[in-house]
Amino acid sequence: MEILWIILKIVIVFAVLMVHVMYATYFERKVIGHMQVRMGPMRVGPHGILQPIADGLKLFFKEDVVPEQVDKRVFYIAPLICLISALSAVAVVPFFKGFAIANINIGLLYIFAMSSLAAYGVVLAGWSSNSKYPFLGGLRASAQVISYEIAMGLSLVGVMMMAGSLNLTDIVMAQSRSPFKIYLIPQFIGFFVFLIAMFAETNRTPFDLPEAEPELVAGYCTEYSGMRFALFFMAEYIGMIVMSCVGVVCFLGGWNGPFDVPGIPFFWFILKVYLFIFLYYWVRATLPRYRYDQLMALGWKVLIPLALFNILLTGTMKSILG
Fold this sequence. Notes:
This protein is mainly alpha-helical and 322 residues long. The chain has 12 helices and no strands. It starts with a helix and ends with a helix.
């Protein structure tokens, strides 16, 4: 029975996640459209509501062009590495009390490990394409991930110190027992560092340098087409959702809210995740892309020292307050 329950949870989470990935693209185009005083998708279905289905069918039936000079085995497997790593990270996310596919004691480290593996897919895609622009995109991605994963990991050390655990469920429960009920207030420096690193980790504007269309055409996925391109696309949006979930669990109290909503135990969790996703769209519509040297300088000279200062401050406060 336990195995059947785990399989059922996997099916439920996978189905809900795929629907969210599909319509995240639609709402991104709509939100950014309205921010730029235009309509966004309107043709397919009422107000373009069926546009993601049309896009999916188009990519599924589109010709899969593979250049002659690519390393075919690596070229084929790279998008799968990105997608599987992103999907695997969802396994430890607690959507409400008692509901996580795998409630392991090192959940936070597991998510970092999966996000690091996803970076290999991007690097391998750039290298295996045997083309200048994808290669440069892959190099950028590898350097970007190294610098911003350090900042992101350090930004969450304060949370680990306050909760005394790497288990995501334990972190949420520890927040509910804390004076402010969320770690956003005592860990506001860590939250700031996490927020910036979150954009760089998922290669989103203003840190989408591995793709950088004006400079690198489409970066690491320039030579990909059809369904293989769609796999990179899906992995990016799943990564956004996973990072949003980590932010909600570690800083915003997870599924806890000011009051319980009967029959919808995940209401507050999903609402907070939507706020993070909206922030992704808002930033994309507002900010220009950073130069690459600015990106690296921000990571090494600002975010990492800030994260280290936050750890020192958290340790000092814990020793004073006992």
